[in-house]
Amino acid sequence: MNGKRTLGFLVIVWGILMSIPMSSGSRAKDFRVGYFQVSPHVMRDRNGEAKGLAVDYFLRIAEKMGLSDTRFKWLPLQRLVGALQHNQVDMALLLARNPEREAVFVYPRQPFCRARPGIAVPAAHGIETIESIDPLLTLSIQVSAGAYRSAFIQDPRIHLEPMHGDDYTPRCFLKLRRNRIDGCYQPDHYALLFEANKSTYRSRIRILTLPEPPIGLYSVFSRKSAASYLQSYEAALAEVVREISYEDLFRELIQRNAPE
Q: Alpha-carbon torsion 195, 92, 155, 213, what sign?
């Protein structure tokens, strides 16, 4: 009888323990963050490890969330979206917001950062500002296939050339330098400024913002992982933003890498 009572007691205790929600420290043993390469936010180093401004900023957030083991996984953009939808990653590090994604993912209230859609063009084109669609009507503009496009660039009168593959901005700038395209579109001015700043071609390139509001770039959760992580993420992000904004970190990065 004593053995049966002991076994019954252990079963009850195990049931109670399994019903207790995991603490943030327990949840955090394997937090999977998916990303696609976009400089300067997130890139892969020679060893295939994630690095970049967004990686550093998220690790500040992760520390305040109590995440002790964050694992970054590189995927091309379209595969990343699919992996997030099937809960193969808990979070996509940076995604813009559109109705299709909102229907299947969970977005935090506050964006990771805000960016301005823009276009890089050769200075020789003579375009100094973009206030309407007219200056773009004679240009051939490269865009990243499958990526977010802001409302302005979706005008059907603009000639767009989709580019497939990862790490779009450096490849687009290379085509720009070789005069194979007239413009390089990015919904994210950070990527354009960073690439122009490190390029020997920078004196012959203009970065022009489009006449539309900034967009939010978000860390986006799968529906399953949002139940466990969204609330602590939002609190941690708000705390980190009070300490230093992503925009300030980017300005520091540009100043450090400014050509002499």
A: negative
- Give yes or no for a contact between 90 and 197, defined as CB atoms under 8 angstroms apart: no
Burial letters 54-75, b for 16+ CB under 10 A, else e: bbebbebbbebbebeebebebb
Pick the closest to residue 31 from 232, 193, 183 (CA basis).
232
Question: In a 3-state reduction of DSSP, which class is residue 241?
Answer: helix
CB 142 within 8 A of CB 180: no
Domain topology for 24-114+217-256 = D-Maltodextrin-Binding Protein; domain 2 (3.40.190)
Helix, strand or coil for residue 128?
coil
The H-or-E segment that residue 163 falls in is: strand 159-163
Q: Report residue 25's pLDDT band, with 50, 70 and 90 as the boundaries.
A: very low
Give the CA diameter of the chain. 92
Backbone angles phi, psi at 132, to 5 degrees: -150, 180
Which secondary structure element, helix H or strand E, spans residue 206, and what is its range? strand 205-209
Kindly report the pTM of this predicted structure: 0.80
Superfamily of domain 117-209: Periplasmic binding protein-like II (3.40.190.10)
Q: Where are the alpha helices (DSSP H) in the chain?
A: 2-19, 24-27, 53-65, 77-85, 99-102, 168-177, 189-198, 223-243, 246-256
Share of the chain above pLDDT 70, in %: 86
Judge contact between 123 and 204, C-beta under 8 A.
yes
pLDDT tens-digit map of 196-240? 887 677 788 999 999 999 999 999 999 999 999 999 999 999 999
Tell me how far apart the terminal alpha carbons of the chain are, to the nearest angstrom: 83
